[in-house]
Amino acid sequence: RLEGVLIRPAEYPGRASYPLIVIPHGGPESQYLDGWNTGYATPAQALAERGCFIIFPNYRGSTGRGTDFAAADHRDLGGREFTDVLDSIDALAAKYPIDPGRVGITGGSYGGYFTALAVTRHSERFAAGVELFGITNWISFLGTSDTPIENSQVHWALWCWENSAVCWDASPIRHIGNARTPTLIMHGVADERVPKSQSDELYAALKWKGVPVEYVVFPREKHGFREREHQVETFRRMMEWFDRYLITHPR
């Protein structure tokens, strides 16, 4: 059994159907709690005010349920852990009036990886995506991140250089041929944890594929944005993107 935090639209009930936005956490060893989850990159209350359901899924690999659950995604990058996200969408759609054609996703770091995976491998399920400083190519990422040992031994329990086929298949770039989801990408130029080159790859591939895409790079920012003006701009652009492709003019 899986859990998560659900935020309902401000005007619910009242419409025949509503869009849903998924916000997977980073880590992946992290979790969402039932509290104040709104921030510049997770504007849940603002999205609820615009008429969206929001789900924060605690997929396998999350903390708070013991080490076995936290390690349940090892050697299975983007596999069963992402299936948990898809299952959360289906479970909510069975209970609430959610439009399956208006599902969006956004996240940063490992949540950015999930977002990149959603708009490529699982593009048919997502109408809009906002990817923040996420991993897009596990093989090139391992050689450029400042934490290769932590990533390989703690998060994955495998080295991509020894398991290149597994890591390549788990990379969003591998599935660019399936991409059609309008995607906004944002990254900090000084990010050493997930280098900007990861978003460079996704942007170039989506642009080559002809998918609607915008790419914003913030000066000085590392992994996660600290400057107030950049946080405000991230929020503004995210809301505008979801308004355009999910809320006002869905696919």
Structure commentary:
This protein is of the alpha/beta class. It has a seven-stranded mixed sheet with strand order 1-3-2-4-5-6-7, with helices on both faces. Strand 4, helix 4 and strand 5 form a beta-alpha-beta unit. The two termini are 32 Å apart. The mean pLDDT is 92.
Q: With helices defined by DSSP (H or I, 4 residues minimum), what is the helix count? A: 9
Biggest sheet character:
7 strands, mixed
**Rounded average pLDDT:** 92
Q: Give the neighbour order of strands across the main sheet.
A: 1-3-2-4-5-6-7
User: What structural class is derived from the secondary structure elements?
Assistant: alpha/beta
What assembly state would you assign to the polypeptide chains in this entry?
single chain
Written as H for each helix and E for each strand, in order along the chain, the element string is: EEHEHHEHEHHHEHEH
Short descriptors:
251 residues; alpha/beta; seven-stranded mixed sheet; 9 helices
